Amino acid sequence: MSDATVYQVVVNDEEQHALWPARTAPPVGWRVEGFRGSEEECMAHVDRVWPDIRPLSLRRRLADAADTSAASSAVDG
Q1: Which stretches make up the MbtH-like domain (predicted)?
Q2: Terminus-to-terminus CA distance in the chain, angstroms?
Q3: Would you say 20 and 30 are in contact if contact means Cβ atoms under 8 Å apart?
Q4: String of b and e for 14-44 (b: at least 16 CB within 10 Å)?
Q5: Which CATH number does 7-76 carry?
Q6: For 20-75, how does the pLDDT look when each residue is reduced to its tens digit (9 = 90+)?
Q7: Are 9 and 33 in contact (CB under 8 A)?
Q8: CA 5, 16, 37: angle at the middle one, nearest 5?
Q9: DSSP assignment, residue 25?
């Protein structure tokens, strides 16, 4: 028995991706990303477009810390 459910890819403010049945609206805090298909097609799409699964706020914090460290090294060196 195959799953005939059509899914849509949804994204939240942290740029995290998830699959949601296309027949229903996504939960509060999530928006439709635009891709629809089978579960397998949607998962393949998410794998392509979301290679870094860390939340956006963490990626920004780490980038800021790296920038601060690089600036400090340049001043010290």
Answers
A1: 1-48
A2: 65
A3: yes
A4: eeebbbbebeeebeeebeebebebeeeebee
A5: 3.90.820.10
A6: 999 999 999 999 999 999 999 999 999 999 999 999 999 999 988 888 877 777 76
A7: yes
A8: 20
A9: P
